[in-house]
Structures are given as C-alpha cells and as structure tokens.
Amino acid sequence: MNNVFAMVTLKSSNFYTGYALQSFFKYTKMDDGDEFFLIDNDGSELENFSFYKKINIIKNKHPYGFAKNVNQAITIAKKDKKNLIFLNNDIIFTKNWFEPLKSNSMSISIPVSNFLFKYKSDCGDLILKPTMRFDEFNENYDLLNDIVKNHIKKFSSQKQFQFLLMPFFCFKIPYKILNEVGYFDESFINGAEDIDYRIRSAKRGYNVNFLINSYLLHFHGKSTWDGNETSAQTEKRNKAYSEVFLKKWGSELTQIFIIRKDFDSILFEKGLNDLFKQGKFGELIRKLL
Questions:
Q1: By C-alpha distance, which of 29, 28, 33, 30 is closest to 81?
Q2: Average pLDDT over residues 63-75
C-alpha cells in the first residue's frame, strides 16, 4: 500500500526543515504512488525547497495546532486510501530508516532516536544526546549512519517495544487504523494529542510500538509550538491540555500517562504491575478502560 508523508514547517524552525528534507529524500525510497506534503503553518520561506519535485505545498490560512495539521494529512490519506507517515521537521533521517515502518501494517510505528538511545562515535566527534542543537551534529552524516548501523547490530534480536512516554515525533498510522480510529482530537492544543490517539487505538486493539531498527536523530523540541516558550507559557499550556485529558479519560489514566509519577497504588490495586514492568502498555490501557 502506498503512503502519504507529511511534514509541518514553522518560521521559528524552518532552518531545520531544509536539513530534514535533504536527509529524507537522500535516505527514503518512495514508491511511485507515494506523496509528500509540506505544510506551511505560518508563512515560512519555502523557495529553497522548490527543487524537490515530490513536494506538494499546503499553506495554512493561519497557524494550526499539531492535531489539526495531522488531520489535514489524515484527510488526504483516507481519501487516497494510503498509510500516513507524519514527520517532525527537526529530524535527520538515516539510511534505511523507513524499511522497518514500511513492513509494519498492524500497529502504529515510531522510530527510536537519541532521546532513548544516547551514543558517542568512535572518534568522539559526534555525541548523540537527548536534546541537541544542530551545530552539535555539524552535518556528520557518515558518523551518524555508522552509529545507527552499530545500534541495529546491538539490538538485532529485539524488533519493537513499548514505553510509558511515546511521543509522536515521527509515526506511521496504517490506513486500516486511520479508518477505524479516525482523526486526532483537536480539543487538545499542542499537548497530549498523541497520548489520546494511543489510548483510542488501544481501545480498538491496536498498539503503538517503537521500532528499534529504525533510528533517527531528533533535535527534540525545535519543531514544537514556536520553539521559544517561556516557562510560564509552558506551564499554562501543560495545565490546559491536562484538564482536557482529565475530563476525557479520568484520573487514573491522567496520573499514569500525563503526570507520570506517584501511580504505583493504581497499578497495585488494578493488578497491573506485571504489565507495566513488561512494557505491555497497550494491554495495560485496555485493562484500565
């Protein structure tokens, strides 16, 4: 089945978009029926991307939140009966990153990244930390791909896993799941949209998995909101989406997946300790529901 790839660019992070696109088209084998959409959220400069023949531009009339931007791409994917692969713009793609996602059709798939697996190149010239600036990468593509190659060898016996926190910084939703689970909930404004979709997918029997043999460099946070939030703005935004989540999903799921601390008593009372320790979060969600 063919795919719709979609990426959002913002004025504040448009610098990263150029490198994301460069590495995407270098390391991603697209089929003839695949489509790529670049969503211009707030009037970014796009002239530098005009030579990419595969890119279709969507210009928003005014800035949208994460959920609404994803929903634009879902509409296209559902109409064309294709899978959706949604991409942050603060990513460096690596060799063969898409092959594991391409073959996975029964769950939502997310590559792993430096947020989960920290590495240092043999020569010491590239250090992958959870949060990085672009100059710390310094376009060391060969060193990055060497690290990824060694990472895949290291975990050759393990293909996928689940974790408590699974941010949708790059994800594939197969067409079948798009049809059954539907659109992202736009009442969540830049926060918890992915957790909400994960829970709704679990209700339908579908899991969200990290694919360990797909590794990307993620600069983490550069594509989020405007990238320049004050601590007060972050606190206000966190409070807003937490209240929406609590109203929709209740205190137990909020404590576990939003607050993410002091929930041992909930797991104990529900008999869910083993599922939590085993990383079976899809099943844990279904038990809680």
A1: 33
A2: 96
